[in-house]
Amino acid sequence: MLTREQIEQFHRDGFLILRGVFQGPELKLLQDRAHAVAEEGTAKQGQYHLYHTFPDGTKKYYRSERMWDRHDIFQSVTVKPELLTAIGQCVGEPFAPINDSFVCKSPGGNVPIVWHQDPPYGNPAWERTFPVPNFDVDIYLDRSTVENGCVWGIPGHHLVGHVDLKRYTQDELFENLGAVPMVMEPGDVLFHCLSAPHGSIGNTTNTWRRIFYVHYMARSVLEVCYADWIKNKQDPRSSYDARRARIDEFMAARARLGGSSLAGHPLKVGPEGFEYTGPVGTPRNYWGTLLDAMPADEFARRKSLQPLVAR
Ligand SMILES: O=C(O)CCC(=O)C(=O)O
Predict the structure, then answer these.
(1) Of 65, 151, 155, 296, which is the most exposed, with the fewest CB atoms less than 10 Å away?
(2) CA atoms of 286 and 156, how far apart (whole Å)
(3) 128-155 pLDDT, tens per residue?
(4) What is the CA radius of gyration of the chain?
């Protein structure tokens, strides 16, 4: 369970690190199955793997999609009660797991992820951030360090919608604007807001750096921010209701692996998905409330990515 201070930090910075959420045999199985997916992708076998193309035309595996359909463990960790509790405390309304992916920096792979905001915030039409908190949940499978290409984030700019990152070089974004390296251990979890500027350098070490990403959302976030996903009728799971319906499947996978149930946790499953029922949480539409209270000059300063004054 998060403390009030952790929740406030999350809403202030747009990033929150949770230490040691996954441990022991659960973490080991997750690492092993993720490694099997990485080996498959590296060998250019199977489906839904992504490859980075270097200027000389060579390709390097760096990402896979649809992890939930590959092994029970990916569904099981997605519904770990302690994790769902922390998510519910930060969202402030019912939510469901909507999307997942796996980013894999192999030893010496040297694939950078250039600075960006995640969809939909690369689009300048998003002048303000949607009022319901929207963040990725990043489950770390390996030690992630400055040397092996950890994620860097610029805290404090996630409420102001699109930010013009192209005004700056990649070096400036890493060095001059208050970027922080997210140094993580296996089993740690990072909450990162989709709207928060972030990027990472390539991995030139002999270590792996792998992260399982899960995007949980409230209904309104999917239906407004990702309306195009729903319109894609080729994906039978496109609607919120269809994705929310997978919760039972995920809980069954967790039970098969002997994982803990929701019993004893401040959580319930309702028609709109998981609901946090404890006392220390986030009010509905909280980012809208924060934005309404933000003076215009502060909004403009955050939008321009000027370094924030000491808080
Ligand atoms: O894992 C990383 O280095 C960053 C991944 C990322 O930002 C993304 O997939 O949007």
Answers:
(1) 296
(2) 15
(3) 999 999 999 999 999 999 999 999 999 9
(4) 19
- Whether the CB-CB separation of 97 and 136 falls below 8 Å is answered with no
Q: Taking Cα atoms as reference points, which of 18, 271, 292, 268 lies closest to residue 135?
A: 18
Whether 80 contacts 260, CB under 8 Å: yes
Is-cis flag, bond preceding 97, omega within 30? no
Give me the amino acid identity at 49: H
- CA 144 – ligand 1 centroid, Å: 13
Ramachandran angles phi, psi of 300, nearest 5°: -65, -40
- Taking only the tens place, the pLDDT of each residue in 76-130 is 999 999 999 999 999 999 999 999 999 999 999 999 999 999 999 999 999 999 9
Report the residue among 150, 158, 213 best suited for mutation to probe ligand 1: largest number of ligand atoms under 8 A from its CB: 213
E strands, 218-307, are 267-270, 273-276
This prediction's pTM: 0.95
Pocket lining: 151 vs ligand 1, CB cutoff 6 Å: yes
Task: Name 12's Cβ contacts closer than 8 Å, sequence gap at least 6.
Answer: 155, 156, 311
Number of neighbouring beta carbons within 10 Å of residue 74? 23
How far is ligand 1, taken at its centre, from the CA of residue 224, in Å? 23
Contacts of 299 (CB under 8 A, 6+ apart): 160, 291
Count of positions (residues) in the chain: 311
The span from the CA of 230 to the CA of 173, in Å, is 33
Q: Are strands 96-105 and 267-270 parallel, antiparallel or unpaired?
A: unpaired
Cβ contact 192:167 at 8 Å:
no
> What is the CB neighbour count within 10 angstroms for residue 229?
17
> What domains, with CATH codes, occur in the chain?
4-303 (2.60.120.620)
Axis crossing angle, helix 81-91 with helix 4-13, rounded to the nearest 10? 60
